[in-house]
Amino acid sequence: MGDVLGPSLDVLFCGINPGLYSAATGHHFARPGNRFWPALHRSGLTPRLLSPAEQDLLPSYGLGITNVVARATAQAAELSAEEFREGGRRLARLVAEIRPRVLAVAGVTAYRTAFGRPKAAVGPQEEQVGGTAVWVLPNPSGLNAHWTLDRIAGEMRRLRESIGRGPCGG
């Protein structure tokens, strides 16, 4: 499944890895029940709710998507720590090349493992990746019951406001 990139990205979102459904469709965060797309809209980062099949519109809003690990699995728990670390190295190279304003990693455990930051928490990070500011977001999977859609959207809104963007990319 390919990255969705463009010039002058404000935010490069980074999922953990494709689930089997996303890999089959070729669309990021594609499983019904995943809260990424609704949270993205509620946060004010997109002017309307996009479907996963519309992911190629993201660069027109200054947004992109990639994954820490490219290998599709039924559950992220199937990934090894080494896969996360190698994914972190690849991600650092990608970010250094395309220079988004912020790298937003959707999954605190993935961020901790990929970048050796065992105490990282959701929110802005002190460390940079590839010379870019990092914000850790909650995993939007429906399996992450600790975070409601409104709380995920609220965290995305905090990210949007931190870079000085008005609602809907204004």
In short:
Helix content is 31%, strand content 16%. It has a five-stranded mixed beta sheet with strand order 2-1-3-5-4.
Structure description:
This protein has 170 residues and is α/β, with parallel strands linked by helices. 31% of the residues lie in helices and 16% in strands. It is built from five helices and five strands, in the order E-H-H-E-H-E-H-E-E-H. The protein has helices at residues 20-25, 36-42, 81-98, 108-115, 149-162; strands spanning 11-15, 63-67, 102-106, 123-129, 132-137.
Instruction: Walk across the major sheet and give the strand order.
Output: 2-1-3-5-4
Instruction: Count up the helices.
Output: 5
Q: Using DSSP, what is the number of strands?
A: 5
Multimeric state: single chain
- From the alpha-carbon coordinates, what is the Rg to the nearest angstrom? 14 Å
How much helix is in the residues? 25-40%
Largest sheet: 5 strands, mixed
Using brief descriptors, characterize the structure shown.
170 residues; alpha/beta; 5 helices; 5 strands; 16% strand
Topology overview:
Blueprint: E1 11-15, H1 20-25, H2 36-42, E2 63-67, H3 81-98, E3 102-106, H4 108-115, E4 123-129, E5 132-137, H5 149-162
Parallel strand pairs: 1-2, 1-3, 3-5
Antiparallel strand pairs: 4-5
